[in-house]
Amino acid sequence: MSRSTMLHVRVDAETKAQASIALASMGLSVSDAVRILLKRIVNDQTFPLELKVPNKKTLAAMDEARMMMKSRTGTHADLFEE
């Protein structure tokens, strides 16, 4: 095995805690999960999750949904009517 190196990742405390709990239930640590992610990237030469850049229409809908959530106006049904 090659010599290991330290990797520092910034993430908010709540996300780290929630991920730690979920991973622990799988018998993994956060470090284990990061190692698995990086190994998959190396082996497959791709990111193991589908990443897409939203188009203008999708971005506008996302912005509208965020504004509705902030102002607490509209309902989920309103989003589907359009």
Molecular structure report:
The chain is mainly α and 82 residues long. It folds into two domains: 1-49, Orthogonal Bundle (Arc Repressor Mutant); 52-82, no CATH class. Helices cover 61% and strands 0% of the residues. It is built from four helices and no strands. The protein is elongated.
In short:
The chain has 82 residues and is an all-alpha fold.
- Report the average pLDDT across residues: 88
Number of helices: 4
Taking the sheet with the most strands, its summary is: none
Counted up, domains total 2
What's the CATH class label of the largest domain?
Mainly Alpha
**Rg calc:** 19 Å
**What general form does the structure show?**
elongated
Query: Level of helix content?
Result: 55-70%
CATH superfamily of the largest domain: Met repressor-like
List the SSEs and their pairings.
Elements: H1 13-25, H2 30-44, H3 56-71, H4 76-81
Provide tags for this entry.
mainly alpha, Arc Repressor Mutant, elongated, 82 residues, 2 domains, 0% strand
